[in-house]
Amino acid sequence: MSVRFFDTYTRQLETFTPQDPAAVKLYTCGPTVYNFAHIGNFRAYIFEDLLQRHLEARGYGVLRVMNLTDVDDKTIRGCRQLGVRLAEFTKKFKDAFFDDLATLRIKRAQHFPAATDYVEQMIEMIRVLMDKGVAYQAEDKSLYFRIGKFADYGKLAHLNLEELRPSGRIQSDEYEKESIGDFALWKAWDENDGDVRWDSPWGPGRPGWHIECSAMATALLGPELDIHCGGVDNIFPHHEAEIAQSECVTGRKFVRTWLHCAHLMVEGEKMSKSAGNFYTLRDLIEKGWSGREIRYALLTVNYRLPLNFTFDGLAGARSALGRIDEWVVRLTERSKDASTPVADAVDFSAHTERFFTALDDDLNISGAMGQLFDLIRESNRAMDAGKFNATSAAMLLVQWERINSVLGFERDAVAIPAEVLMLVEQRQAARAAKNWAESDRLRDAIAELGWIVKDTKDGAKLTAR
Ligand code: AMP
Ligand code: ZN
């Protein structure tokens, strides 16, 4: 078994070889907390969740960091519009983000560093870059990285950077940079920033976005990461800049494997806040979709393919989950049914292995789901034919748990409401009195409340619809 990933840097499938298999260093760019994250952002986070869960299923330990960008133009604008402090403004969206992660069953990283807690480390990195002459302070007092000093600049994005290389002084309206491609490390304070400012050896200001990730990644994971992820829009300039800054400071290769997921699209366009064509998770929950259904829709398309968001896709997720649920219920019942003969054991472990082998191949989730649905179809057939005994069912449930440790598709544990329980009791009494009309009426009343009652030889069983 070996896991392979398509590395953005080499543009090839590469066998994954982390520095320490017990602690794979994974850095994932997190949200800018100025608003609720949209489901395009969550596509990226769900892909990263699949990555983490699959690595864990394959026996790796994962040490994951996801940053929170809690200072930038947008967060500053937001807090100033409301007249509140930056930390107060961003707290609301940080909290909402963690709630959304839970709704989507995304495993939590070990660290969620907030940029504002690492400004000291950012200043230290910039100081090294200044000492080495790869950074400079412009007339506007901001500090920039000189891309011409870093020979590998552009290699991640595979860009022809000729036009970005310094060719005399280019004056742009926005910046006072030596070269149009130079990016900001430190933004000098101006009145639009209000009270958002930190002192530095070069005057008051705030860090640029790119240095935030370099500093937080290095502080928490060291100079060399095993995997760094994000959406494809992060490749340039953000990740390109991270490489340049980090490698100039440490002299080490910053990242061994770069993984980027394609965008979530809406009618042919990237879902984004600026295009206004976005749904937040909360919008969809309000429309009656569950976190599990949204997770399914975002997870089951291979991460390097664009995913077109549609409500039909969500409906498809709902019915696929229904099939899985039915199968799990059936297996559970069969696993407790001692009446089937022991000799009829059927082993489906080869299907389970194929599920994981598909994921080894650059997280080929659609191939893996194909294996799962084959497994469901064939085991259902075996159960129909009465060939499937309790032991086989119990074995298959254990395999399902392994598979589901990667998918996270288990049903929500729902408490049965007292009202439903009361109706079930009344129905039991009606049945005991052989009052079938009343029993049927109560069954319908229970169904109206969203529950299905089934009579088995062990008594009435309830399932949520
Ligand atoms: P942002 O808050 O814009 O910095 O984005 C946070 C993360 O979401 C980054 O990894 C982006 O690449 C990713 N992202 C943003 N929009 C989309 C989209 N429509 N589809 C997939 N990923 C996205
Ligand atoms: Zn980042």
In short:
The chain is α/β, with parallel strands linked by helices and about 475 residues long. The chain has helices spanning about 40-55, 75-80, 85-105, 120-130, 210-220, 235-250, 280-285, 290-300, 310-335, 350-360, 365-385, 390-405, 420-430, 435-450, and strands at about 5, 10-15, 25-30, 60-65, 135, 145, 185-190, 205, 225-230, 255-260, 265, 270, 305-310, 450-455, 460-465.
Helical content band: 40-55%
Mean pLDDT: 93
Described by the principal axes of the CA atoms, the overall outline is elongated
What's the number of extended β-strand segments? 15
Q: Strand order of the main beta sheet, please?
A: 4-3-9-10
CATH superfamily membership of the largest domain: HUPs
Q: CATH topology of the largest domain, anyone?
A: Rossmann fold
| CATH class wording of the largest domain | Alpha Beta
Radius of gyration computed on alpha carbons: 27 Å
- The CATH architecture assignment of the largest domain turns out to be 3-Layer(aba) Sandwich
Number of helices: 14
Report how far the terminal alpha carbons are from each other: 40 Å
Bound ligand species:
adenosine monophosphate, zinc ion
Oligomer category: single chain
Largest sheet: 4 strands, parallel
Unreliable residue runs? 166-175
> What portion of the residues fall into strands of 2 or more residues?
5-15%
Element pattern in H and E: EEEHEHHHEEEEHEHEEEHHEHHHHHHEE
How many domains would you count in the coordinates? 3
